[in-house]
Protein 1
Amino acid sequence: MTKKGSSISKQQIHKSTKTTVEEQIIKINVNVHPNSKESSIVSFEDQILSLRISEPPIDGKANLGVIEFLSKELNIRKSNIEVGKGSKSRNKSVEIDISSENISKEELFERINNKLNN
């Protein structure tokens, strides 16, 4: 219920909520090299994250490997990471929901860059 004379409509509230939710899901383009000796972050250039994953590209094992590796390396719950597009390709779109992680997009990218420098 709005106060008398208030100019905020239900539609405006819905729009602002929708925008907030969309901003909380970060999409990252990922290039995956499966069946590697060990899992590691190779590079993060031109908005593409390049990963080496030790799991083979059979029955979705490499996709699970991507989720588990990013979860461990970036300190984000596995349930908040999803392979959005490219589940059968080396080029994937990974979606990370940061809404319940209490981090910003900038902090997420900072975590990725810190792992590159180690």
Protein 2
Amino acid sequence: MSLDIEIIVGTYEEFLLGYQLLSPGEPQKQQFKQTFADKSHAGSIKSLAVLGPWVATGGSDDRIFIYDMRTRKQAQILLAHAGTVNTLEFSPDLTHLLSGSADGHMIATRVGSWTAEGDWHKAHAGSAVTHISCHPSSKLALSLGGDLVLNTWNLVKGRVAYKTNLRNKRTLGGSPECLSWSPNGEYFTLSGPVLVEVWDIKGANVVRRAKTPGKPICVAWLSEQDCLVGLDSGRLAWISLKDAQEAAPKALPGHAARVKDLAYLKGTLVTASSSGEIKVWSCNLEKRKLVEIACTNIDCRPTCLGLLDLTQFGNARPQQKPLLEKELQAKLPSTAAVGAGSKLPAAGGFVTIEYDMDEKAEDKAGKKPEEAKPKPTKIEPRQRKPSKTKPKDDSSGDSNSEEEEEYGEIEDVKDD
């Protein structure tokens, strides 16, 4: 297990939080240290992507914020979407950021220049794009949408290569979730109400079907053969491809509330529950065991999390300071003082000091207005102006006919 990891958490309360583990001496007793707290979004954070030095967050305010963790500053704001940003994914070669939104658009943004190089405004027949997962080769990607179609994207040519119709796949229900590639890209997962399927990319068939003791919410691959699934009951399900195709997964204790997200990096597993609880585990792949090494409550409701590898910065670690130095800095109570009933501090207003010129005194004294001494007046708080919403881009309306693209045929997948 590596402690050179920073935990990045997005919350319903619009906060983006960072934590690190400190070891006071005993490896089994780790402590959380908050590294930053930022509140740039004007709505809850719905999606998060972390790769290399970059952190991207998407929210219900239709915006995407990009942070450079080398300088720990905000690098860019993307305003291309006109709906909630449901999913974000960096390509493994770190050349593009893929984003999907409730407006039906799927956009590929160039990393560095942050310009949109591809915008498919009807990626799923105009319905919302809910999930995107990029293949480790960075040449393929999978996407799910409200049309219940699984799209396979050729990222080299920038178009859909194949479509798989999931409407007849009754085991996956009306909204398949947990779309994720395995580390080597040979398998990917899909989930239904009480079931997780592992698909083989070579044969385009299901090689593992596991019924879970609850609804699957999120998934993280530990190796090419093992993955962990977070359930709405708070438990974790360990699924291995070494078991029989229909074998039940191994159920493990996790949280008392729903598991909202989980991430795995360098032998360290981090899980977050809807109650605000964050846990760090060490994984034993051979025995299929999890050992809890740290736990805290952030007093917010997590929606997503990611892990930042600090070893990439070498000895020149980024400074532990707030991401943005604003006049109004969002502050959170320290995790050591967080209680069950504590609340987030309310943001205060701006305070200004104004000076008025006493014109009558100036006339009597025979001085020019600019030479008179200013007279201080009382201090009054200045109310914050409502945030400006970005105008919607109507230039890509449905009035213009779309160019026809060559797609693969839609395959009707039937129950086995």
Protein 3
Amino acid sequence: MEPSVRLAASSACRTCLRSSTAHTSRPLMTKAFSKSTSPRSLRNDSSSSNRFIHSKRPTPPTQTKGNVSRSLSLFGQQSKVDEENPVGQDPAAIYENRSRPPILRPDDLFHSFTNSPIPEIRRRAAFIRQHGRCPHPDHSPTGSGAPAHVDFECPDCGIPVYCSDQHWAEDYEAHLQICDTLRQINEDDHDLRSGRFFPEFEYAGPQMEEAAVNMTNWDTFLYTRQFEAINDDRNMRQVTRLLTYPITIGSIIHELSPYNIRKGGRLTHEGLKSLSALRYTLHPPMSGGGEDIKGLRPEAPPVRIFILGARAESSLPRNVWVQLAHIFPRGKFHLIFIGPESMANRDDEFPLPPRTSSNPFGAIVEDRVWPTMKISTIVDYYHTIHKTGQFYPYDPYFDCFVMFHPGLGHPASSHEWAETVPLLLETKAPIIVTGYTQYDMDRDIEWVRKTCSGEFDLLMEPGENTFRSLRWDLNDLDPQDISCGNWGVWAFRGKRYEATTKNV
């Protein structure tokens, strides 16, 4: 997940969007962007009198500490020094920064990576030239030439793809298969850094219990969730790149899931059994409870969703994950990010909490993300935690595991899962897995079958994810390798055996 995506998503403010469109003739006095991204910060706004000026075209604010200026963290939290001394930076400079026009116009997003006006993209072009390999047949193992790095940028997509213009021309028909997609990636990357305001990152609030959510596709979901209208394909690609993570989970465990046991629905009978248990907890019947003593009723514990091998998904702005809670009005969640890279791109939260008897794994706990959602992050391997019994016992009614692009069968990462997957099967809880391609998922299933000797039940057949990211991403190590997040999804769990009696 690129820092620019998180920064753009965390800097959007619904109040500023509405006020800027309603009063475009003058700057407005509104709350700082940093107060709009964290529910914890929102609760503290009533006691704060600090105000900043927003122009018609706001841009992400910066924190100033001493003589060093840096961007806000993705969670939108300010340091105490900044909150107590908002005049640390010249007000004229603040106004100038926020009223600065975009770097790129919407009709001027295509630029070659090497000559891009964005320094970050120029550095990315240098990285691709240093690591990318030319795909021309002459450089293949059976070709006549030695491997060569890419150096020539296609004039149509603006990305370094071949070692020379001659090889590009000779292999042009093969390049045409991905050229349009590479150009789209080019323009989307420039759009993220264009300096424009991102209204598509304004998310809908809680869902009414009486209003059903239609999960047929992205369009019907955003409409029934009462999102602001997104009429541009590029805006849709940007917003789905973030929402694909929580909505992929929600679309499977929700009672109105697009996956079913009918022909082509991809859900198996064993999958219906497992997911029905979770849905029973997440969609509890009306209990007649109230706020007084007579209205007290016993409540089920929150559903624990263990996100294993967490990387980019753990650094998403928290208002993205809150969308999962919104589609379950009476459900409760505890998201647990586990993995050695689960704190990537979260430098503002270092150092990690010390490991104590009450917090043996140094977990970072965010218990005020939303009234019905809590998030914990643990920097460790799951199998290490599982053996200690930290989260024991596991219950199929309250537990679910998710792995985003784990690469179970990939030669470079399969060894990291060899000890974890057998332990997951012991819990008998559903395990949701996503993949970049159909081949990627088939390879993972085959690896699970060989590693676990077939001791698992397939809950959902592998196939394209209804709520995959609509935006394509480029592998900087191989410019020919393009993918989109959570393209496919499948699910499995440990095999269950039913004991029966037999009269002898």
Protein 4
Amino acid sequence: MAKSEAGIELAVAVLVVARVVFPILQSQAGTLWCEATGVVILTSVALFAEFQGRKQLLDHLKPRSSMSSGILLGAVTVPTLLSARLLQLQRCCSSTENSQSAIDRMKFDFWLALACSMTVIDALLQGLILGLFAMPVILKRLYRRLPSVFGWLDDQSIPEKQSRKELYMNYRAGSFYLLLLAVVFAAVPLWVGVVTGYVLNPVIWTLRFVWRRNFPRLVLCFYWIVIICSPLPHLYRISDQMLVPKILIRKYYHVMIVFMFIPALLLDPQFLQLAFGVAFAAFLVAEMIRIGKLPPCGHLIERFMVAFTDHRDSGSLIISHFSLLLGCALPVWLNSGAGDRPLAAYAGILSLGVMDTLASVVGFNFGSMRVSPNSKKTVEGTLAGIVSMLASVLILIVMLPSSARPGGVKGYLSLVAAVTGAGIVEAYTLQLDNAFIPLLFYAMLCL
């Protein structure tokens, strides 16, 4: 990547951070100046690390075109969005109790909520995901001992027509599924009990939670199954035979999240929070089965996933579906508490399902002007993404309660600035855009 292009990408990231920091510095009585100062210092250090890292790498390696803002975005994205969320909560607190003690209590509750679970759903998802992340560490130690165990077996102890390798893989699969059951039925209840004081069976609790509002939640589940499963055989055939470019096939999943998650977020956001966590856990389990090639479905998952991958999933770990899911889920999880910007919860769904999709489709089919010489993204695609998301946001505002709509001309100008900023970030960042763009868009919507 040329130096000028790297500079543009870094400038875009810095401008988005500045768009969040300036309103915080102008907040009442400077109650969030510490947080804003921390973001500024972190941005400065990250910029210095970017320039130093590139200077050293250019002497020894040919750097990837996607590395130019990696350190900066990785360092400042989460602190920036958390500071924006604090500003949002401060406005709600100021409307009820305008005192320094109330602001300090709000800040303490906010950081406490990030550090530990506040509801049963939070604790359930935390325990489940942490347990699944711990599984590979435990299994790695266990698998190291299996060859020594199999060394003790003689050929007479192995059933006919079953090779030693097949028996070894079956033992690996058995240990994986037993550990998975231990996580779900032992580790998760223990975690929930320690954090919240409730003792529960996660499977039974989840089924009861769905049945509590049985008709709308069951309808949502059936609706999701139909949307996911109906086109999959057709899409797999098209992708496997390479009848359509994979980038366009992958965008179907981006369109799908709009039709799946916006109705759920409008009707039952609490159920959607739980569904996101369960889906993420299912993705983790499927990925572990795929990487380990565990019977009975490891090879089937591998063959299905490879049909939809491209150069961005060139390693052993396929992460595109994780980033897409988390890009939609994180704004919903972050916006689950109090706040005066309910539209911020839709940041991931809109930026990935509408803007990213239209930008790719229009740019691929009609784009001719590149945003930079070495970029595949086009000006036509970027403009199409911005315009389509503005239209989607305006349609969504009509569906929201009047209290959730932007206030006056200033509110709508701030909304236009947030959409435009997200579109520019999508055009110039070469990082994992499914993860970064929703979070930065969320931060700008909180202002």
